[in-house]
Design brief:
With about 375 residues, the chain is mainly beta. It has 3 domains: about 1-105, Sandwich (Immunoglobulin-like); about 110-205, Immunoglobulins (Immunoglobulin-like), CATH 2.60.40.10; about 215-320, Immunoglobulin-like (Sandwich), CATH 2.60.40.1220. The protein is built from 2 helices and 26 strands. The protein is elongated, with a radius of gyration of 28 Å. The model is unreliable at about 170-180 and about 350-370 (pLDDT under 50).
Length: about 375
């Protein structure tokens, strides 16, 4: 069984070549076929600097071809970096970066320069942080991704002045989330007299979005495992009063439509009391409803909590779900009442007051013969 990651065995232009044509394609040949995980994912593992022109990428077995969509700059050193994470067809991934350098336009020598950066977030290495050199007075920009230790190393950077920026990007359910201000900057010059630059960037990610429920799992009839996309604030701690749990109209249970397409206001039909809430991680809560959830019903959960940035969850950040636990429903021995005063959701959608209950009162034992 193959357990070895792919190894680069040949490139064209070759490493340290000085006669590459500005319009030629870059070919990388490995010792085994590369996994076909999609061109977008493959392109994220191979970085060409300077970062213009853009390159079209094609995979053919063990060979990757990068074709420039415009001529490369004449007389410039280009750096091709294969980042960790490039996989073969068995899923074996590279763990270290590999770089080749070449220059375009005849016998122009390789630029002997190096830029090293260490990026920290709250004194911890910022793995996969982004780093960008913006040219000042010329047109050669550079971009790179930090390794698992928050380190950047870029060779062959053209002589000139640059403004460097380090930041972090986050993926959230509603798209990309960046720092509201670039985390750290500095300005420096690379020249024949100053061929190296080394700096440490300390950044703090400023969250600008409210916490969102990412998943809801129901391992038991009276147990919800709720995961959010943010670390929750330590104070005030989540409690039973922090959870709004509703059972939707039973008529919706058989609807064969995506749950996310149901309007939250239409799901707030019968409010369920909560017996207990326990934090089981910085982003995880265990919620115990006062009555068992029914496998044939749809539910809506929303939270009244804050993340560590002090941003409060909104009703729109809740989650609609079906209970999918194994085994029978378990009823409690004592009734747990709803809170006497129930604040309305932040979106002011009223909870229907005259809607008949679709089941027993919160916490009541089942009627005879009820499953």
């Amino acid at each position: 069984m193959d357990e070895a990651p792919p190894v680069l065995v040949e490139s064209d232009p070759a490493d340290r070549a000085v006669n590459a044509a500005p319009d030629q394609a870059i070919r990388l040949r490995f010792d085994e076929p590369i996994g076909e995980r999609g061109i977008g994912d493959l392109a994220s593992r191979i970085v060409v600097n300077p970062d213009t022109p853009e390159f079209d990428i094609r995979l053919d077995g063990e060979e990757i071809t990068l074709s420039p969509n415009a001529p490369m700059a004449d007389g410039v050193t280009y750096m091709v970096t294969i980042l960790p994470g490039l996989q073969d067809r068995d899923g074996n991934a590279t763990t270290t970066a590999r770089t080749i350098l070449f220059s375009t336009g005849g016998e122009r020598p390789i630029t002997l320069s190096i830029v090293r950066a260490t990026i920290l977030q709250d004194s911890v290495p910022a793995a996969l942080a982004r780093y960008h050199l913006e040219a000042l007075g010329h047109e050669l920009d550079y971009s790179m991704e930090a390794d698992s230790q928050g380190r950047i190393e870029m060779e062959g950077v053209a002589y000139g002045s640059y403004e460097a920026t380090a930041w972090i990007e986050r993926v959230r359910p509603d798209g990309w989330q960046m720092t509201d201000e670039p985390g750290a900057r500095d300005t420096f010059e690379i020249s024949a007299e100053e061929r190296a630059h080394e700096a440490t960037y300390r950044i703090a990610v400023v969250d600008t979005t409210a916490p969102v429920i990412v998943t809801v799992e129901t391992p038991e009839s009276r147990s919800l495992e709720v995961t959010l996309d943010d670390d929750l604030a330590a104070e005030p701690a989540a409690s039973a009063g922090s959870v709004r749990l509703w059972e939707a109209d039973p008529d919706l249970a058989g609807a064969e439509i995506p749950l996310d397409s149901l309007a939250p206001a239409d799901l707030r039909v019968r409010r369920l009391a909560i017996s207990a809430v326990e934090a089981v991680g910085s982003r995880e809560l265990r919620v115990v409803p006062a009555e068992p959830l029914r496998k044939d019903r749809i539910y809506r959960i929303e939270l009244v909590v804050q993340n560590r940035s002090g941003l409060a969850a909104t009703p729109e950040g809740g989650r609609t779900f079906r209970a999918d636990y194994e085994g029978p429903a378990v009823w409690p021995s004592e009734r747990v009442p709803l809170p006497e005063t129930e604040p309305p959701p932040a979106d002011t959608t009223p909870v229907p007051a005259d809607t008949p209950s679709s089941g027993p009162p919160a916490g009541a034992p089942p009627a005879e013969g009820e499953p």
